[in-house]
Amino acid sequence: MMENRAKAFVTPHTDLGESPLYRAEDDTLHYVDVLSQKINILQLSGNHERRIIDCPEPITFLAFHQDGGYLICSFSSIVHMTDDGHWTVLKQVFSDVTKERLNDAGIDALGRLWVGSIDRVLEKIPKGTPEATRHQPWGCIYRYDTDGTLSVAQQGGVGAGNGLCWSPDGATMYHVDSYFNYVSAYDFDLKFGTISNKRLVVTHNKFDGEFDGLLTDANGDLYTFIWDGGAVIKYSSSGELIRTWDINAARVTHGAWVGSKLDKMIVTTAKRSDSEAGWEGEEAGALFYVPGETFIGLEKHVFGESARNK
């Protein structure tokens, strides 16, 4: 019988855990606490010693930078931060984040950043209302090149850009829109850095909650992390439901492939604020291992580093 309940291995400690990132060289997991403005660095072997780097702003995405440290997205900017916490803004994308802000992102095989944004006007409008139907979402998908150039890869059409990743062959880019609760696929041209032929792969209408983070494995399957749904759900690349895992936390945010063979998955979660009603889960804010099968994960790319040169 398959085991479908994930197990917490680090007790609750994040208000909004997100963007987990694995480094094989020292067997560490790097992940953010968005609301507390912290980067956590967890030693996976041994006694799970944890180090914290404080940040001056909330962080929505974390990747390794070829020059050391991290490539970061804040609400407004793209940032390089060193291991000792020195914060350098590379590109301010928004001067006013009350209408639009950056959110989750990914690094492609040429070391470029792709990041979706959130339409902050739309996110305040209840879903399914006439006002929501009339509103034309102005969230975008941006591409930030290693030479510092920022381009708009998709102008508008995004409600709440979230998880972003690629198929194993790099020919397809996947992107979550949490407001509209679907996963889109695009034809991806690595050489020219363009996306086209948007189509829906998965619409989340059979379970509670919203799509949040997104991963792909070496077989091309998709793993979705369900905010306010307490689950990880696996789909085929054509959108067929394969498997679900239960998480003892309502707000499941993202996952990372870990281990020397990238054959294990760790999941981040979040707590509810004191003013929000509903089931939170006894282990909200904890880290979980997902059991039940041997995964074949994909390595994350480094900003500024071409996978072709490895």
TrEMBL record:
Keywords for the protein's UniProt record, in alphabetical order: Metal-binding, Zinc
Cofactors required: Zn(2+)
Pfam families for the chain: SGL (PF08450)
Annotated InterPro entries: 6-blade_b-propeller_TolB-like, SGL, SMP-30
Highest rank taxon of the organism: Eukaryota
Binding of a divalent metal cation, residues: 18, 162, 212
Catalytic-site annotation from UniProt: 212
Ligand binding (substrate): 101, 103
Cofactor info, note text: Binds 1 divalent metal cation per subunit.
Any one GO MF annotation of this record: calcium ion binding
Listed PANTHER family: REGUCALCIN (PTHR10907:SF47)
Residue stretches making up the SMP-30/Gluconolactonase/LRE-like region domain: 16-270
The UniProt record lists the keyword Zinc: yes
Family to which this protein belongs: Belongs to the SMP-30/CGR1 family.
Protein name: SMP-30/Gluconolactonase/LRE-like region domain-containing protein
Keyword hit for Lipid biosynthesis: no
